């Protein structure tokens, strides 16, 4: 009698566990649908409401093409800067001890907490027409890069930092004891391990830069065919009562971000797989 009772109890527990799992999946799917999928579907619907020809006309207009190209190039430059400087900052925070380290670690997250338009005000005061340091970057591409670099600072740092913390130092010490230089150890052992997290952080930084508005709204200048980025162009289209054009450009931005994120994730997965195979 005991065995059937135990088996019945096990089946009930399994059924209960699956039920809870299904409820959890249902709630998560509903939440994602309300917050992400439905708004995206509405955006796509508005962008094609006037037909495919109107969509193509909106995204192929000279001003739209220029602003999309500028946004892509600037975002790519910012992502590359983040790859280098973000990895360096993460390395310093993990491997070095210095006074004020806790403060620096907290400052990294400041762009997440601070309204980005505040950054634009500060950058305009620092690099604007009345620059106290004599450097004027207002309404220039370098000004856009600096503003977006501020807004995307935490992504690579926070992606790389935990991987560095968990990195096995014995492998580094073994390489050094066998005569490898520190640079060789860094490039051959440490960097390959960090590549998936670096790519993940770079992808998030790129996607954030594509749609950033607050940090560039003042220092960017919003000059068509010069410094007007996609987010400002979209706002301009809404202000002149062209919501379909604004939605069309937004869909293109969404596709670019999605393709870049998926591509970097695939590359990261391939690199991780090769590392596991080599082990």
Question: Can you tag this structure with a few keywords?
Answer:
279 residues; mainly alpha
In short:
The chain has 279 residues and is mainly alpha-helical. The chain has helices at 2-47, 52-60, 62-95, 101-107, 110-113, 116-127, 141-151, 153-166, 169-177, 182-211, 230-239, 243-278.
Please give a structural write-up.
The protein is an all-alpha fold and 279 residues long. 80% of the residues lie in helices and 0% in strands. The protein has twelve helices and no strands. The termini are far apart.
Give the averaged pLDDT, no decimals.
84
Give the class from helix and strand content and strand pairing.
mainly alpha
What gap, in angstroms, lies between the N and C termini?
50 Å
Radius of gyration: 24 Å
Shape verdict: globular
Helix content: over 70%
Q: What letter string, H or E per element, gives the SSE order?
A: HHHHHHHHHHHH
Count of individual beta strands:
0
DSSP summary: helix tally? 12
Strand content: under 5%
Regions with little confidence, pLDDT below 50 for 5+ residues: none
Query: What profile does the largest beta sheet have?
Result: none
List the helices and strands and how they pair.
Blueprint: H1 2-47, H2 52-60, H3 62-95, H4 101-107, H5 110-113, H6 116-127, H7 141-151, H8 153-166, H9 169-177, H10 182-211, H11 230-239, H12 243-278
Helix pairs in contact: 1-12, 2-12, 3-7, 3-8, 3-10, 6-7, 8-10, 9-10, 10-12, 11-12
